[in-house]
Amino acid sequence: MDKLRALHYLGLAAAERSFSGAARVLGVSVPAVAKMVTALEKDLGIKIFHRTTHGLALTAAGANYLEACGPALARLDDADEQARSVSVRLKGTLVVGVQHVIARGCLTAALPRFHARYPEVDLDIRSVEHEARGAVDGVDVTLVLGWPKAEDLVCRRLGAGRYMVVASPAYWAAHGVPGRPKYLEQHVCLPIRGIDGAVMDVWTFSRGEERESAIVRGWLTTSHAHRDLFIELALAGHGVLRVLDWFNRPEVMSGGLVQVLTDWESTEAVPVNVLYAPGVRRVPRARAFIDFVGEVFADLERDRGRPVIGTERPAWMRRPHGRASDFESRALRSN
């Protein structure tokens, strides 16, 4: 068995949560991926994946093994890239579409590292809020949150972000810190309208066997594209935000925003995806960038200390342009 290839297949199968997704990224058959992972399980004497109706899920033993192999795989990837950069000088322009939340939260700080590695590649970064055909025309590689439905594009899941609740120290001092998620209903919250148009006003959390939701309200709602407006208001003490755990790291690290309900965990983990046409990976500069953003999100996972697996598409997203709470209310009445 080729152990290095098996580890590579394993990492992609875990990231894609399916053998078919890994096969699509690798350009090989699904049986080839399944056979390699099965051989690795037999060699190690452990079960790496649970096969569920929702796809593959790492077992505890599988997650521990993949985490232990992570640094070695990262060093191997770096060595491969250095070897490629010596033999092939990448050059030309690459058009990258990216949602603002990903650009601000993860990508911007990493771009100088990509430039240092590939100084002759020019990046043309464009704002893309969704994966609809017209929105990604002329774009080589696209980074989007959520659950894209672009069937003619390769969709590789890079990671996920889990929500946390934050506000300024002045706000918490004036209004008190909620001890439970339900108590958020007594606060001035600033819900965001998602890309599909629905207001995300149901914030659900879990703690052990407990599960609790808050239907939040505030004096202002804004679109996904204008979330920076909410950040400025929250920093000034005007309300409570729910943000992805990697989006406002500078504000949280500096103390400008303070997280609460740290013993609770959001039940929603939004996937981060890279989309591209099937033939794009054959272009060396595109392949280099796709692999690079994979590294960026792998670094985020290591910084967390534990993997965050993207959850399924929320049921309320089936009815766009309303409020998530409207869908929840109808669902309760129908039961």
What's the SSE blueprint?
Layout: H1 3-16, H2 19-26, H3 30-44, E1 49-52, E2 55-58, H4 60-87, E3 92-98, H5 100-117, E4 121-127, H6 133-136, E5 141-145, E6 154-167, H7 169-175, E7 192-193, E8 202-207, E9 210-215, E10 222-223, H8 227-235, E11 241-244, H9 249-254, E12 258-260, E13 265-266, E14 269-276, H10 284-304, H11 324-334
Parallel strand pairs: 3-4, 3-5, 7-10
Antiparallel strand pairs: 1-2, 5-14, 6-11, 6-12, 6-14, 8-9, 8-13
Task: Give an overview of the whole structure.
- Among the domains are: 87 residues, Winged helix-like DNA-binding domain superfamily/Winged helix DNA-binding domain (Arc Repressor Mutant, subunit A); 130 residues, D-Maltodextrin-Binding Protein, domain 2, CATH 3.40.190.
- The protein is globular and about 60 Å long.
- The strands form 4 sheets. Strands 3, 4, 5, 6, 11, 12 and 14 form a 7-stranded mixed sheet that branches. A 3-stranded antiparallel sheet has the order 9-8-13.
- The longest helix is centred in the N-terminal third of the chain and has 28 residues.
- It has 335 residues and is of the alpha+beta class.
- The C terminus is likely disordered.
- Strand 3, helix 5 and strand 4 form a beta-alpha-beta unit.
Features:
7-stranded mixed beta sheet, D-Maltodextrin-Binding Protein, domain 2, globular, alpha+beta, 335 residues, Arc Repressor Mutant, subunit A, 3-stranded antiparallel beta sheet
In short, what is this structure?
This protein is of the alpha+beta class and 335 residues long. The protein has eleven helices and 14 strands.
